[in-house]
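Regression test attached.
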Amino acid sequence: MFGKELIRGIYTENPVFRLLFGLCPALAVTTAADTGLGMGLATTTVLLGSNLVVSLLKNVIPPAVRIPSFIVIIATFVTLVGMTMEAFFYPMFEALGIFIPLIVVNCLILGRAEAFASKNTLGRSLVDAIVMGIGFTISLGLLGAVREILGSGSILGFQLVPGTVDMALVFALPPGAFISLGLMLAALNYIAIRRKEA
Amino acid sequence: MKAALRMIFVLGLIAAVAGGALAGVNAWTAPIIEENTATRLQETLASVLDADEFELQEDTEQTLWHGYRNGELMGYVVRLRVGSYSPAGIDTLVGLDTEGNVQGVFIFGHSETPGLGDKIEEKWFLEQFIGLGIGDDIARGVDVDGITGATVSANAVMTAVRNSVRFVGEYAGLIDEPGIINLADVPDGTYTGTARGFIDNIVVEVTIEDGKLVSVVVIEENETASYAGPVYDQLPQAMVDEQKIDVDIVSGSTGTSQGLINAVKDALAQFATGDIEIDQLAGGIYRGEALGYDGKIVVEAEIVDGQLVAVTVLEHNDTPGIGGVAFETMIERLLAAQTLDVDAVSGATHSSQGLLDALKDAFRGAPRIEISRMEDGTYFGEAESFGGLLKLKAVVADGQLVSVEVLDHSDTPSYANPAFEEMIEDLLAAQTLDVDLVSGATISSQGLLDALKAALGSAPRLDLSQVPDGTYTGRADSFGGELELEVTVADGVITDITVVSHSDTPDYANPAFEELAETVVDEQDIYVDAVSGATISSRGWLSALEEALRQAVTD
């Protein structure tokens, strides 16, 4: 049951590569694998909190004010995560910068609250948050890893090729984010089409 | 209605719970965040000053830390915010050692244009400040380079470093506080003063009437109008209203504000109280008066190259037998001591004190230079002008100024050159330094005048262009005894200087002689600085050189 859900989060409904959710942080913070993973985990935490509260309150919140309610709930969790990160994970907080408060407007979170948590049981909502979060984290980590390897020749700060070798710096810069994401989307689409045909 | 109330209630409740949760977590994390910030601040401070413990000082005008290592004071770190291209300005940290020399500069925060202004964070730019300190200009083109395309941002950092150095200099007592100017002591009149603003020099005219400051007018400046405007609107008025010079600066325009204040101080500097240091005085003839035992004493004193060379009592009414003798004794003491801090002659206290007061009065004023009393010779002098240092040569013969030649300057040629020509023509015609400045090139004209004053206030020097070709021998006393050298001049250029014999310690003297010879040949100037570590040998060598060349001219 959970395994099937996990595959849904990682592959069939992968937030970044299949649903194209949360592209803003996915492009901006994936200059290296660790910032990508950090962003993914921060988002997962917020997702878990918001899905939990939204699912619990789904029968209490009047439909007319559900969006403002969701936004207040999400914003609260984002701020809590931000404060905690500043206190305990400062280098990551510094590296992610403005993109931490911007988790509020990550459509993945509002999307899961609106489309899933507000219509499903607490248990299913939490599982959804976990698998979607894992999918998001893996996507960002992967994108970050590709860009870090191509752009800096290292992975998670560990130098793979000698520092004297010039790497394709463009991959560490904003254009590289678009190029990497585009190529990865193309590859996944290619695989999906081949599977459908087969 | 019920539905609406429900909406308000639910949303309100969610917001309240959210607020509570945030307040709770904030109370938990805030102290940790604060501690982290403090740790990071210490680390940042350590990047500009080699110390491991920093202590924030209280009640200082600027944010200042003392930096310690093993309990020993290593220096200071100053945090300053200076106005710049972006309205928020630039937040800087400057680390200085206990002598006031810059050890490191860190840009704490800025909002300059990315790609242009943010080049101020580049290592090469910040590292060029290291080692500069009190006495250095810390100005673009003088001892630091600017950044093309980011002139304003780079200037702001220079202002920050300059002000940090000055602040620490005053804070740590490394430089004397500028003398206190008591407006009531300033005679009526209009005074002109110049000081460096944010971009360039600011020239002001300050008018004093009945011991009161009645107006401050900016007559020349080159600042950015939008920043400087409020400074010119507010500061002069504030000075007149408050009857003081150190008024509050306009925030966001620190450089211009400080420049204006310094220019006003410069205008009135001659009336500042405090000790008079004879070696700091410009050369020339000073006249002053004061009350003696019985009426006025008028004195004249002559300063040459920072030395008091003559004091003459022109007028007095004191008892001849007592006052006259007292004056002679006092003048002897003054010439020997080269300071005004000499004992009064017992039995003639009033006359002695009167003479000292008259001298103080004299030295607070500007010196007069009487060309008719100048010794014949060639005089060299330099002064700060519009674009930098201006060097000139003046020749006096038979009590007449016969020529003035600008040797080197960095002013805008199209303005400065015609102005110099006009000034020189006026000076030669008037045979006094009291000539009008050329309008449109006031600062350049003033620079020329200042350089001429400096030249005529120093002792005459040898003019190399007067030396015929040949090899000349000169002798002088040096550290260990007589030193003899030979100098070769060809086509008006010194080509070679060889020491023939000397009795100085070879280990110290020989390298110094080599260095001096190289410098003199390079610069074609025989008045160069002594080599440190071999000062007396250097002086001996330089005297022998001058003697050799002087003979060549008179022969």
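Expected vs. actual: identical. Residues 278-364 of chain B form a domain with the Sufe protein. Chain: A fold (CATH 3.90.1010.20).
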